[in-house]
Write a structure and sequence with these properties.
403 residues; five-stranded mixed beta sheet; 16 helices; elongated; eight-stranded mixed β-barrel; alpha/beta
Length: 403
């Protein structure tokens, strides 16, 4: 920080760019190998970046895997050029290729005095920009803007509201239920349990907004445990009348990677006296996990108890063929984007056909999400999809409406 202050107070410097660099998903590197290996990557990157910096730029080591670059009297296009050079340099580094690692770097940039005139303010804005870069695809440089500040303030407000809801006996949280239907018999064979949240202003917030905030701020485990407990409690008596019925509950990779995850799951199931074989845990993959052996060992422990494991949103994001190759799954849920492609005008949908064919070869059950019309339902029935879920049958509803 003192270096920043010296630069800002220097009358020879009319403009100063502060660039924060951070290795994407670096936590996974430490999980896969060890801290010494990770430290060596940081050291190698720092030396390589230093070697290509122009004379008016200096590199500094910050906390963890974060680095900072100060560039005097420079224009934004020159910063973009420098970042491109850093990316190209990383691509050509061979040191970690043999480990199968794809190292990328995200960056956030602020400019003095355009974005602030104090070290604390500038560093905060640079951090917000870096976080924005990571949340919007990673491996990119983002310049600070008022939009970023507005988004950050909104997220902070949401985080405070979420914590208040949790501390007040999960006030504002509720569950919704969407049935899963057998493709051939058209009978309901299970249900997916979905989390909803209404903030203090009585505004319903999309799970796409609040779930990542729960994950990033160490709240997902306590909320996830509450969802599981309430779901099992809700359907406990139902199972007595319909012993074949499956209850699917979402869990994120952040939850699964917790050391106490298995123990916590078992305790909740036993507390609620719920049959293990009637529970399906759906992995909702919002975080990339490079060390799939950790997931596999935990999946195996759960499956040994009789619990089924499903992969949600298959075919998009991180949920790809790599998971099928390295994880023993029971069910894959085909993402609704593939189902939307089923239209009467299209006679051939190769990607979807490949997924259903491959799942059959591997002995996996398939659930099609987002089924909305008769034509989709009929097509899926003819193409070996086992179960259907979507507005064609029922949207996510309260338990009373579900009954």
């Amino acid at each position: 920080m003192s270096v920043f202050e010296d630069k800002i107070s220097n009358p020879m410097i009319e403009k100063l760019c502060i660039v924060l660099l951070n290795i994407d998903d670096f936590k996974n590197v430490n999980e896969m190998y060890d801290r010494d290996f990770g430290d060596n990557i940081i050291k190698t990157l720092a030396q390589s970046i230093q070697s290509i910096l122009p004379d008016n730029a200096e590199l500094y080591k910050l906390d963890g895997d974060e680095m900072g670059i100060l560039v005097d009297n420079v224009e934004e296009n020159e910063i973009l050029t420098l970042y491109d050079q850093i990316q190209n340099m990383i691509i050509h580094l061979q040191l970690w290729r043999k480990y199968g690692l794809n190292i990328t770097i995200s960056a956030g940039c602020v400019i003095y005095p355009k974005h602030g005139d104090t070290v604390k303010e500038l560093y905060k804005c640079a951090s917000y920009s870096l976080q924005y870069a990571k949340e919007h695809g990673k491996n990119r440089l983002v310049f600070f803007s008022q939009e970023i500040l507005k988004n950050k303030m909104y997220s902070l407000e949401m985080m405070r509201d979420l914590k208040a809801s949790i501390n007040d006996d999960f006030r504002g949280f509720s569950l919704r239920f969407q049935p899963q239907v057998d493709t051939q018999s058209h009978k309901m064979i299970g249900v997916e349990v979905l989390l909803r949240w209404t903030n203090d202003k009585y505004k319903a917030i999309s799970p796409l907004e609040f779930i990542p905030i729960l994950e990033e701020n160490d709240m997902i485990n306590i909320v996830g445990a509450w969802v599981l407990r309430m779901a099992l409690r809700t359907f406990r008596k139902w199972i007595d009348n319909y012993p074949f019925f499956k209850v699917s509950v979402n869990v994120s990779a952040v939850q699964i990677l917790e050391d106490t995850f298995i123990k916590d799951i078992v305790k909740i199931i036993d507390d609620e006296n719920f049959p293990y074989q009637n529970l399906v845990l759906e992995l909702t993959e919002s975080h990339t996990v490079q060390n799939l052996s950790i997931l596999q060992s935990k999946f195996k422990a759960l499956q040994d108890l009789g619990i089924y494991i499903a992969m949600d949103d298959f075919g998009t994001g991180y949920a790809n063929l790599c998971y099928l190759n390295e994880l023993d799954l029971d069910v894959i849920k085909i993402d609704k984007t593939f189902i939307k492609a089923i239209k009467e005008a299209e006679q051939h949908i190769p990607m979807l056909e490949s997924i259903t064919h491959l799942s059959g070869l591997l002995g996996l059950r398939t659930v099609a999400e987002g089924v909305e019309n008769d034509y989709q339902q009929q097509w899926l029935g003819k193409n070996n999809v086992d179960y259907l879920q979507g507005y064609q049958f029922l949207p996510p509803v309260t338990f009373n409406d579900f009954i």
